[in-house]
Amino acid sequence: MPVLEREGAQIWRRRTTRESLVRWFGWFLGTAVFVYCWQIISASTTWFFVWDAPRIADDIWTRATPPKWGYITQLGGPIWDTLNIATLGTLISLCLAVPVAFLAARNTTPSALVIRPIALLIIVSTRSINSLIWALLLIAIIGPGVFAGVVAIAIRSIGFCAKLLYEAIEEIDHSQVEAITATGGSRWQVMAYGIVPQILPAFAGIAVFRWDINIRESTVLGLVGAGGIGLQLSASLNVLAWPQVSLILIVILAAVVISEWVSAKVRGAII
Amino acid sequence: MSHRELDDMLGKGWRKPAFVKNPLVRWLLIVGFVAYLIAAFMTIEVDWGRVYEGLDRGWAFILAFTSPDFLSRWSDIWGGLVESIVMTVAASVVGILISIPIGLGAARNIAPLPVYVVCRGIVAISRALQEIIVAILLVAIFGFGPLAGFLTLSFATIGFLSKLLAEDIESMDKVQAEAIKASGARWMQWINYGVQPQVMPRLVGLSMYRIDINFRESAILGLVGAGGIGATLNTAFDRYEYDTAAAILILIIGIVMTLEYLSGVIRARVQ
């Protein structure tokens, strides 16, 4: 315990002098980096616009209220598209994520030296690129529309689902697997009766969780042309129809809240 | 299982128990799901001719990954990348600093009810709004540039971190906190010595995770004019310069992998 001796009396301290110095230096370095970053941001900001921001915000607010409620009749189709993008995208990604997860998990991979790194690379690269970027790319390749959105969501979700799933596979109870092996089960039988029942609840939880996230993400995919309610949002923004924008934002918020509620209920029922 | 049941089961084949036990619910779920799938597939229009034409371009894009072009647009890539990193660092610092008091306020066991309600409200708003939608609004208000991106990421960080921090504080061990209080500590000392040591490891881990997310998000904010590498990437896609786009994507994946590795090391050290 670090103790400071002063005038014969011992005073308790939390850290030794050396530790305090290292910590102080760390904080100093961090602050310096932050100030430097802030200066770069500040240099590329037009401060006149920022000082003018309250007036602009007020202006946008008066333009956007009240929302144009009549416009809601045109939003049914886009919301249906958004729901389809999220649901079909999640389904496709689950079909692709399951084999990847089995190849990536240490206890089920056929080859830890060759196949596991490839599976991990697939997981990392699909996870680290946002669905909007996948959508941009797919629109350039297969043209704008709902289909590009479905594929973008599907690719983006592979990494997420496969990562959570392979962690669940690595944490299974090994004695059950051994029991099935002892009865003479083949490799596939061991998988179907020893491993799958153990990860099924985790799998269902991951599927619903990702579906919820995908609803959020698919609401904005239309901004780059990949279908759904985002198309309406970007069209309204382009013609500065603020009352429509505010209505669309309310609809998106409602969709997000409902999907979160559904996913919480389903996960509560499973786990 | 009693003797009786075992006797009844003798001579009959074993069947796998179903995931959903109630047969009526199970069949309703299956039928509803199939009906939804049919309806969804009916409404998605896929122009297979266009997809077929695009396959060449898709293949060209995949080939571009084998010969990424870092050099011909290097100044644009470098500028965008630096801006993304700067936004990430600044927004993470500010977001974490703000989310600590809000997280304290959103924990029911240490905050009085009015503070709790206000802080939970802030968290709910921040979580419900998509980053890209916040970015669109902030770009409209503050003008183009990294300031809008910085504010967006800070705002998103607050919702994420405060919620998880508050949940961690709510599930902390009360005894330690009470012991500090019994020794006559003031409120600040109580937080500093009773609460903080219990939640610090998780807070550090979550902060690292959020920095990782912030960088990934900063890569798309450029699509709506909020600064960062996204603008460069979008231009590269629009001009069909797949080799440059591949170079940018490789850089993003590389940085995300590095961040993930670093956060893994740091989390292993603090926990």
Task: Characterise this structure.
The complex is a heterodimer of chains A (271) and B (271). With 271 residues, chain A is mainly alpha-helical. Chain A has two domains: 3-63, no CATH class; 73-270, MetI-like fold (Orthogonal Bundle), CATH 1.10.3720. Chain A has helices at residues 17-43, 47-51, 53-64, 76-104, 115-128, 131-142, 146-170, 174-182, 187-220, 229-238, 242-270, and strands at residues 3-6, 9-12. Chain A has a two-stranded antiparallel sheet with strand order 1-2. In chain A, helix 4 packs antiparallel against helix 5 (115-128) and helix 4 (76-104) packs parallel to helix 7 (146-170). The longest helix of chain A is centred in the last third of the chain and has 34 residues, at 187-220. The mean pLDDT of chain A is 87. Chain B is mainly alpha-helical. Chain B has a single domain (63-270), classed as MetI-like (MetI-like fold, Orthogonal Bundle). Helix content of chain B is 79%, strand content 0%. Chain B contains eleven helices and no strands. Chain B has helices spanning 3-9, 23-43, 48-64, 74-105, 113-128, 131-142, 146-170, 174-182, 187-221, 229-238, 242-270. The longest helix of chain B is centred in the C-terminal third of the chain and has 35 residues, at 187-221. In chain B, 39% of the residues are buried. The model of chain B has no long low-confidence stretch (mean pLDDT 86). At the A-B interface, helix 1, helix 3, helix 4, helix 5 and helix 6 of A face helix 2, helix 3, helix 4, helix 6 and helix 7 of B.
Please give the structural blueprint:
The complex is a heterodimer of chains A (271) and B (271).
Chain A: E1 3-6, E2 9-12, H1 17-43, H2 47-51, H3 53-64, H4 76-104, H5 115-128, H6 131-142, H7 146-170, H8 174-182, H9 187-220, H10 229-238, H11 242-270
Antiparallel strand pairs in A: 1-2
Chain B: H1 3-9, H2 23-43, H3 48-64, H4 74-105, H5 113-128, H6 131-142, H7 146-170, H8 174-182, H9 187-221, H10 229-238, H11 242-270
